[in-house]
């Protein structure tokens, strides 16, 4: 393979063009990261070079593990030239990687096609159908059964009618002319043809009444969905100008599902964050740097007028890097030894690759964290210049220093640290960086005082959600180094328990170190993420973060984006290594939640049998009458709730068949769930678990190829691989646009589709059943009450455009209030707007309307006379009368259901009525030779016609209007209240209104000072990130909860009596007071 070439199979690396057979790859399509990773071939196979003839003679035997989905691990052996070589993940190029900065490389294919690790991690593509689609299919079956039943009734009645009186109507129904054995007119007896007649009538009525089965429904639905997709694509508020990226709806079938989302599963890096790390603060030998200070040394706030420290004297510094604390620069200029060692560690202890591009030094790091740390050292004058497998070169203010690289002690999920051992001028030094918990355990006792100062600084950094690392060093005796080097070589070449042996050797040398200080890096959130998450939480949408990052990183971001808050009673960490440990941790967490909520939550215990049957209690929402229902599990609005953090290795056990229900039950009792160090397949399994047992509509969102298997609805186009976008149904440039997509477009789409379906079924039943009632007056002879032209044009012309306009444009409240009152999202969760009950109501309304539409004109026309004394009643006139009444009624009913009027709505509604009368009047003339000639002109010239029309329409619509006024006045829904508020405030300027979104509750309690800020995205052996952590929060006692409740009640009462319009506590989630009182 050559540089920049895509790796199409899992390949064992044999040789490369680089020294020591190093190979650089980009794994954006595997783990979502664009940073370069390093692979290295076996030294013995590296001698093959690029000689094709040598490869022809290559006859090694490879024995390895079977195909699996573990991206971070590979085990195997290669037998070649009577030697056995151990193979691991460092020597394998996985499918999906891209070769970078390597002229060429050779390898042998291990797995291909569906057996590659990338394909094993890709979830199966499923055809996605909405809940409304599934319900419609079921309803269509029911409607067809209804049609057959009605036709059978007509058939039976026809048979009876023909048997009893059919012989008297042979002039009108001459069955005997073409059906043998039909009723005998001369003898007055019934022949055997009655059965045949009845069968013919059955199929005739199938044809006549088939309009009750909405054949055009699916076409209309797809047209409406197409428009909904266009609204998403054209929304300027979801357009990201810096990258010229608009929102993109890649499907037209799932729009209304966006209005029913109950769970959001989100990636973290690149989705919630910008994946841009910035060196923010540091602590060196007990002194903290990073905050600007005044001339007296007192900290000051950073404003636009705060002067920045100039780094222009350093030609290698990044012009975009900002630093405000001049004290650190003064210490560097003074060549302070501790500061020098601090930044030398940052410049040496890493796996970054440096390269020159257009005269500029650029770094290719395995993680943004490493890039930020090395770049920080560079900005302060300690520039990492180059590396070889044996050396590292740095430049300290113009002077090059070369260090011999003796050993790299890799990260793993237990060590949570990395070290390098270097030698310069005969001095051997170990530099180490890692989590405070692991570094502190390995420090020399003489550093006790400095540990105390540094711990205080780490706590301060953690309050700001910064990612922290501790730095330490140790001088090594040359003789000890030689002995340790020998033991390290024996452990690293061992075929049995290699990892454990290497880890033990690392432990020997990483002790009695001297603490240098700590770093604090800011992983900046995307703009608007905290507000977006807070608003989605108010809509009772649960958010689960599924990330490949380690626990501390995810927790810190959780606090920054307000997914986790200090108001939460407890954050439970599940990090057990064995099945028994994980089960115990989950059960203990569940028991403690139930104990805390005892007496606050009614019936909090979830039935495990119900869990297995998929009948978990659903999330409570503010009902259609504005009252708040019971919440799910332990999510109570009078206290902070809980959060669950679980590691990937623990998730392996938790997702087992016997334990997944326990995990789901525990997670369902929490406001937030964070899954750390998860693989792509685990992300998909978590999503599937919730969908399977909760029967909930879920949304998965991510930006990397590692998110592809979990993505079911949305993909964010970020800085990483675009494979997630290509696999998604909706693509967004920023996470904050999810608020607009769900609370506005999703809710509107659901509302519009439900209104459309209700009206569609109503008008079809009202139209079709008029034929059924007419059957009782035509001897069940399969005659139609309307003329054929009207039947043809009813669904195509007369009633199609008004309902389509409603389905495309309708709104209950505008975009502004949709975002301001997230609780408006509740009906979608409960399927309140369209379900079997609503369908039955629409059908019943259609049946009643058909009765009124038929029998009022029938009674009005019975024995009616024209002004000239001739008979007015005839079949044609009666049919036109019913048709006119039907068109006016269903069109005005559509007008009543329309909540948002546009010019197009006005046009199609009134034009549909006008077109019917004009077309009927013009078409029923002699020019066309139609059998209904003159009927319309004659009928419309009589007062009887107009009186009957007005009477029938009034009888049908007046009860509907009265009912709506009654419920709006006595039992208004939240939508009614907000609509009223919207109308009242329409004349006011929006800028003068108070934004009622809840005030931030993101405060730091004393307990948060105990939370570690350690976070560093790195990989074990260039491939695996660190995981492991402990519960950093203390539980709140039931007495504290009651005290907290009383305090909230007191504050709430004070706010009420003082007339304050401030937003309510965000943990409550209720509607703002002025909305409920409007």
UniProtKB/TrEMBL annotation:
Record-annotated residues binding Mg(2+)?
267, 269, 703, 707
A GO CC annotation given for this chain:
plasma membrane
Protein topology in the membrane: Multi-pass membrane protein
Q: Which residues cross the membrane?
A: 135-162, 196-219, 760-782, 788-809, 838-857, 877-895, 907-925, 945-967
Q: Which residues bind ATP?
A: 267-269, 370, 411, 433, 467, 547-549, 677, 683, 706-707
Required co-factor(s) are: Mg(2+)
Read off the InterPro entries from this record.
Answer: ATPase_P-typ_cyto_dom_N (IPR023299), ATPase_P-typ_P_site (IPR018303), ATPase_P-typ_TM_dom_sf (IPR023298), ATPase_P-typ_transduc_dom_A_sf (IPR008250), HAD-like_sf (IPR036412), HAD_sf (IPR023214), P-type_ATPase_IV (IPR006539), P_typ_ATPase (IPR001757)
Q: Where is the active site?
A: 267 (4-aspartylphosphate intermediate)
Region listing for Disordered, in residue ranges: 1029-1078
- Where is the major localization of this protein? membrane
Biological process GO annotation list? Golgi organization; phospholipid translocation
Q: Where in the cell is it found?
A: Membrane
Which residue stretches does the UniProt record annotate as biased composition, category Polar residues? 1029-1042, 1055-1069
Q: Keywords assigned by UniProt?
A: ATP-binding, Magnesium, Membrane, Metal-binding, Nucleotide-binding, Translocase, Transmembrane, Transmembrane helix
User: What chemistry does it catalyse, as a reaction equation?
Assistant: ATP + H2O + phospholipidSide 1 = ADP + phosphate + phospholipidSide 2
Entry EC no(s):
7.6.2.1
* Family the entry assigns: Belongs to the cation transport ATPase (P-type) (TC 3.A.3) family. Type IV subfamily.
Q: What is this protein called?
A: Phospholipid-transporting ATPase
Organism equals Paralvinella palmiformis
The organism's lineage is: Eukaryota, Metazoa, Spiralia, Lophotrochozoa, Annelida
């Amino acid at each position: 393979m050559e540089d920049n070439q895509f790796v199409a199979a899992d390949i064992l690396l044999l040789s490369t063009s680089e020294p020591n057979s190093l190979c650089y790859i980009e794994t954006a399509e595997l783990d979502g990261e664009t940073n370069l990773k390093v692979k290295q071939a076996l030294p013995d196979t590296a001698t093959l070079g690029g000689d094709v003839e040598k490869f022809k003679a290559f006859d090694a035997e490879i024995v390895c593990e079977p195909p699996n989905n573990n991206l971070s691990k590979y085990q195997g052996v290669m037998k070649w030239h009577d030697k056995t070589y151990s193979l691991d993940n460092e020597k394998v190029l996985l499918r999906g990687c891209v070769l970078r900065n390597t002229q060429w490389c050779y390898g042998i294919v291990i797995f291909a096609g569906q057996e590659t690790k990338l394909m094993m991690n890709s979830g199966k593509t499923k055809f996605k159908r909405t809940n409304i689609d599934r319900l419609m299919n079921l309803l269509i079956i029911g409607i067809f059964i209804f049609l057959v039943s009605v036709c059978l009734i007509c058939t039976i009645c026809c048979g009876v009618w023909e048997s009893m009186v059919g012989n008297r109507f042979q002039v009108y129904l001459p069955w005997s002319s073409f059906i043998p054995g039909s009723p005998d007119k001369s003898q007055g007896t019934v022949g055997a043809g009655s059965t045949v007649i009845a069968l013919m009538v059955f199929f005739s009525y199938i044809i006549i009444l088939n309009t009750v089965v909405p054949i055009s429904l699916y076409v209309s639905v797809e047209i409406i969905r197409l428009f909904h997709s266009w609204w998403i694509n054209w929304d300027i508020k979801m357009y990201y100008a810096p990258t010229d990226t608009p929102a993109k709806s890649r499907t037209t079938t799932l729009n209304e599902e966006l209005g029913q989302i109950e769970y959001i599963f989100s990636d973290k890096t690149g989705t919630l964050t910008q994946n841009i790390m910035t060196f923010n603060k540091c602590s060196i030998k007990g002194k903290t740097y990073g905050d600007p200070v005044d001339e007296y040394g007192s900290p000051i706030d950073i404003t636009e007028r705060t002067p920045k420290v100039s780094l222009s004297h350093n030609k290698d510094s990044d012009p975009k890097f900002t630093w405000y604390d001049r004290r650190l620069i003064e210490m560097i200029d003074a060549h302070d030894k501790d500061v020098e060692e601090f930044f030398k560690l940052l410049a040496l202890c890493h796996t970054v690759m440096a390269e020159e591009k257009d005269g500029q030094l650029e770094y290719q790091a395995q993680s943004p964290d490493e890039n930020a740390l090395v770049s920080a050292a560079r900005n302060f004058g300690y520039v990492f210049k180059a590396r070889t497998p044996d050396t590292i070169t740095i430049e300290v203010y113009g002077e090059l220093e070369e260090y011999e690289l003796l050993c790299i002690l890799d990260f793993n999920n237990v060590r949570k640290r990395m070290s390098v051992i270097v030698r310069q001028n005969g001095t051997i030094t170990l530099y180490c960086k890692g989590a405070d918990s692991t570094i502190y355990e390995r420090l020399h006792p003489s550093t006790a005082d400095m540990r105390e100062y540094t711990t205080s600084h780490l706590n301060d950094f953690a309050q700001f959600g910064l990612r922290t690392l501790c730095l330490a060093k140790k001088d090594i005796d040359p003789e000890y180094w030689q002995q340790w080097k020998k033991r390290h070589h024996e452990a690293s070449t061992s075929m049995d328990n290699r990892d454990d042996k290497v880890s033990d050797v690392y432990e020997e040398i990483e002790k009695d170190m001297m603490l240098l200080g700590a770093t604090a890096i800011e992983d900046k959130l995307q703009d608007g993420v905290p507000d977006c998450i807070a608003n989605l939480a108010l809509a009772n949408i649960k958010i689960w973060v599924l990330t490949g990052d380690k626990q501390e990183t995810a927790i810190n971001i959780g606090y920054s984006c307000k997914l986790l808050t200090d108001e939460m009673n407890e954050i439970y960490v599940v990090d057990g290594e064995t099945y028994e440990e994980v089960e115990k941790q989950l059960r203990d967490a569940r028991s403690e939640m139930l104990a805390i909520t005892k007496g606050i939550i009614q019936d909090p215990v979830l039935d495990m049998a119900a869990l297995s049957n998929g009948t978990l209690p659903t999330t409570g929402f503010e009902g259609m009458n504005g009252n708040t229902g019971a919440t799910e599990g332990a999510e109570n609005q009078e206290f902070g709730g809980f959060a669950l953090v679980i590691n990937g290795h623990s998730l392996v056990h938790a997702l087992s068949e016997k334990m997944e229900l326990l995990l789901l039950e525990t997670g369902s009792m929490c406001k937030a769930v964070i899954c750390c160090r998860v693989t792509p397949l685990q992300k998909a399994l978590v999503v599937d678990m919730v969908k399977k047992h909760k029967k909930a509509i879920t949304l998965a969102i991510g930006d990397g190829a590692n998110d592809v298997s979990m993505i079911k609805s949305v993909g964010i186009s970020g800085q990483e691989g675009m494979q997630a976008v290509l696999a998604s149904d909706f693509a967004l440039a920023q996470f904050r646009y999810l608020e607009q997509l769900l609370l506005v477009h999703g809710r509107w789409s659901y509302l519009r589709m439900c209104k459309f379906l209700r009206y569609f079924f109503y008008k079809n039943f009202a139209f079709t059943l008029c034929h059924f009632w007419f059957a009782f007056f035509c001897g069940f002879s399969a005659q139609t009450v309307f003329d054929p032209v009207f039947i043809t044009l009813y669904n195509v012309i007369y009633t199609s455009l008004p309902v389509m306009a409603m389905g495309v444009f309708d709104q209950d409240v505008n975009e502004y209030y949709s975002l301001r009152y997230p609780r408006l999202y509740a009906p979608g969760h409960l399927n309140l707007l369209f379900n079997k009950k609503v369908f039955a109501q629409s059908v019943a309304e259609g049946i009643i309307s058909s009765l009124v539409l038929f029998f009022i004109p029938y009674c009005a026309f019975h024995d009616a006379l024209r002004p000239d004394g001739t008979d007015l009643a005839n079949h044609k006139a009666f049919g036109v009368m019913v048709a006119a009444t039907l068109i006016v009624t269903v069109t005005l009913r559509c007008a009543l259901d329309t909540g948002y009027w546009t010019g197009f709505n006005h046009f199609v509604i009134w034009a549909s009525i006008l077109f019917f009368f004009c077309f009927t009047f013009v078409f029923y003339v002699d020019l066309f030779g139609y059998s209904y000639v003159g009927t319309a002109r004659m009928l419309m010239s009589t007062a009887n016609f107009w009186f009957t029309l007005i009477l029938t329409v009034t009888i049908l619509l007046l009860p509907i209007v009265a009912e709506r006024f009654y419920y709006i006045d006595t039992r208004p829904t939240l939508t009614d209240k907000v609509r009223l508020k919207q109308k009242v405030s329409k004349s006011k300027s929006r800028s003068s209104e108070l934004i009622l979104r809840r005030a931030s509750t993101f405060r730091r309690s004393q307990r948060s000072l105990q939370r570690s800020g350690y976070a560093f995205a790195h990989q074990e052996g260039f491939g695996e990130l660190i995981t492991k952590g402990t519960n950093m929060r203390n539980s709140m006692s039931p007495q504290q909860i009651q005290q907290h409740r009383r305090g909230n009640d007191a504050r709430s009462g004070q706010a009420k009596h003082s007339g304050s319009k401030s937003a309510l506590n965000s943990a409550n989630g209720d509607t703002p007071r002025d909305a409920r009182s409007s």
